[in-house]
Write a structure and sequence with these properties.
The radius of gyration is 17 Å and the shape is globular. The strands form 2 sheets. It has a 7-stranded mixed beta sheet with strand order 1-3-4-5-6-9-7. A two-stranded antiparallel sheet has the order 2-8. The chain has 5 helices and 9 strands; from the N terminus they run βαβαβββαβαβββα. By secondary structure, it is α+β, with helices and mostly antiparallel strands.
């Protein structure tokens, strides 16, 4: 169970980003679980505790993401504390964005926006991709709205929740499914606008 960070002990510096290593696995599992599952997650607004019980991830799953050659698990640290993470997977001209987690006691203060901005920078500038894609549980209207405010758009493309596979949690309702969201990155958008103006 995640401990609540006292306000006087909360890290306040600018986040530093780096790729995760296998040594980070226990801390990352704890971070992801604290952000989405159980009573600890209710301290933030990204909780899925009303939709799912059980685990969100495990050490094996996190280690597998870290070990992928086509992606990176990015961690954010403040004052030496691991406070957020996200996964990026290179998929040709797109990048998949997932495992996005911010410690519950630090949510709502701009840290999530900073992590997303770094993910977009890495995908666009270092990988040269033009678009981010991700999936969100359709019933998470508040979370989808947050992503829409960050420039993502809903596609209406759905995939079923993996019922019966408790590695992804134990559903509390029978109608869960994922919706694909996409975002055109700034560099690609600028190039597209430049081409359009040139044609005009």
């Amino acid at each position: 169970m995640s401990e609540t960070i006292p306000s006087h002990a909360r890290p306040t510096g600018r986040p530093a980003f780096r790729p995760a290593t296998l040594a980070d696995v226990p801390a990352l599992v704890e971070l992801v679980e604290s952000a989405y599952r159980g009573d600890a997650s209710r301290a933030g607004w990204t909780t899925e505790a009303d939709l799912l019980e059980g685990q969100r991830t495990d050490a094996e799953g996190v280690a597998a993401v870290i070990g992928r050659s086509d992606g990176v698990l990015l961690v954010a640290e403040r004052d030496g504390q691991l406070v957020a993470c996200c996964q990026l997977e290179h998929r040709g001209d797109r990048a998949y964005f997932g495992m996005f987690s911010v410690r519950p006691g630090l949510q709502g203060g701009g840290l999530g926006r900073a992590v997303l901005a770094e993910a977009e920078r890495l995908a666009g500038e270092e990988w040269g991709v033009g678009e981010l894609e991700m999936t969100v549980i359709e019933q998470r209207a508040d979370l989808i709205a947050w992503y829409e405010r960050r420039g993502f758009r809903r596609t209406g493309v759905f995939t079923p929740f993996p019922y019966g596979d408790e590695r992804f949690g134990v559903p509390l309702r029978p109608d869960l499914r994922f919706e694909k969201l996409t975002k055109v990155l700034a560099k690609a958008l600028k190039e597209s606008l430049g081409e359009s103006l040139g044609e005009a």
